Amino acid sequence: MSQPIDAVRAAFPSLAITDGGRPRVYFDNPAGTQVPQQVIDRYTSYFTRSNANSGGAFVTSRETVALAEATRAKLAAFVNAADPDEIVIGQSMTALTFHMTRALEKLFRPGDEIIVTRMDHDGNVTPWLKLAERLNLEIRWLPFDPATSRYDLTALDRLVTPRTKLAAINYASNITGTINDVGAIVRRVKAVGGLTYIDAVQFAPHGIIDVQALGCDFLVCSAYKFYGPHVGILWGRRELFERFTPPKLRVSPETLPSRYMLGTAPYEAIAGTLGALEYYEWLGETIATPDQRAASSNTMNAGKLWMQAQEEALAKRLIDGLQKLKGVKIHGLTGANEMAERVSTVSLTIEGHDPEVLATALGDRNIFAWSGNNYALDLIGWLGLAESGGVLRLGPVHYNTVAEVDATVAALAEIIA
Ligand SMILES: Cc1ncc(COP(=O)(O)O)c(C=O)c1O
Q: For ligand 1, what atom is nearest to the CA of residue 32?
């Protein structure tokens, strides 16, 4: 009998590709997921029917604008933004974040403070370090406890001062997988009038985002991590976007979101992003359980609940399997009752084995995995793994199977034997 997972996998043409008869195991998802047919269809349709620049008095240009508006409206629902004009689309999370550091310059006076963390991807660290260098600001580092893989919130109380103007915080780590209590951090920073900039790149593929409930000021994610094309997405509060002045051309409009979007937008990728959100809706409508639908404010979120249940089970099975291998250390939450507090990104080291050699040996078996620091430079340094090649990272998502998890654990057992 056909199972929901079969229908899910059938929605992703690339999952059926084989190489010399060998299936592919995509565990490289934290670096970018595969795309469903809805995304491919949106690209085909855009290039066939609607391809134009915006602002023209003809059908293709109007369709381009309408598609971009439809995408922003659905993205607004995806993060529960109050207003689609608060959604800016750009090249990547990194490009958007550098852009915002330019836009926010007027917020700071020399000696003001920015909090960055030891857990973040460099995309949410270096842009703020560079800003601090330019404006003579103080950087304050929020540590995390390697034993628990969680931010040290008592340290946060010491770090936050009346001069804290902004905190750049990770929603879920791309190494440990920890889902952080962003709401609690936002409240502490807000209490002194600071702004919060949340990196949700790793959280967005796995969890439901509600920017209004979090109370944050900016939140960034990347569509290519949640089954869409290579674009970054920035949500920000309207009054803040209006208050600050991004670098822009004289000819580009002052209105939102154009004011924050440099040059011509990647319209085909924006249409493709709409396809990714339509996939979530399809999942919510046809695969999610009635309970998941009843518990969700929209069908996209019902789809996410279904994904979460799959991913928690896959992460648990993967962690349990890995823990049986000799010399394995998992850098992240491992408890059976902690699966809801982490995403399914699992990073590990195996005593006496170089992570890159392991990833290469897996690659030889058509199992796709990343190794190294995965751009979480400070985190890998904080764990003391910078000199030993970082970690091996396995990132199952909802379209992966129990059989793939078991085959990967078996392959690793064979490789280290
Ligand atoms: C947690 C996190 N933040 C930021 C980024 C950077 O995103 P982008 O490639 O869109 O710049 C990544 C990419 O892997 C990431 O995992």
A: 14
Give the orientation angle of helix 402-416 with respect to helix 299-323, to 10 degrees: 30
The CATH number fitting domain 40-276, selected from 3.60.15.10, 3.30.360.10, 2.40.70.10, 3.40.640.10: 3.40.640.10
CATH superfamily of 4-34+299-416: Aspartate Aminotransferase, domain 1 (3.90.1150.10)
User: Measured from the CB, is residue 222 less than 6 Å from ligand 1?
Assistant: yes
- 200 C-alpha to center of ligand 1: Å? 9
Query: Does ligand 1 have an atom closer than 6 angstroms to the CB of 32?
Result: no
Q: Determine which residue's CA is closest to atom 16 belonging to ligand 1.
A: 174
Only one residue has tokens 């990714």, namely 276
For the question of whether the overall pTM of this predicted structure is more than 0.90, the answer is yes
Domains of the chain by residue range:
4-34+299-416, 40-276
SS3 per-residue string spanning 106-137: HHCCCCCEEEEECCCCHHHCHHHHHHHHHHCC
Q: Is 94 in the pocket of ligand 1 (CB under 6 A)?
A: yes
Give φ, ψ of 35 to 5 degrees: -110, 145
Q: Compute φ and ψ for 246, nearest 5 degrees.
A: -75, 155
Residue 313: pLDDT above 90? Answer: yes
Tell me the per-residue pLDDT of 372-384, one tens digit each, with 9 for 90 and over.
Answer: 999 999 999 999 9
Which tens digits make up the pLDDT trace of 261-272? 999 999 999 999
Q: Whose CA is nearest to atom 7 of ligand 1?
A: 93
Q: At what angle do helices 59-79 and 267-282 cross, to 10 degrees?
A: 50
pLDDT per residue as tens digits for the range 188-244:
999 999 999 999 999 999 999 999 999 999 999 999 999 999 999 999 999 999 999
Banded pLDDT at 2 (limits 50, 70, 90) = confident
Is-same-fold flag (4-34+299-416; 40-276)?
no
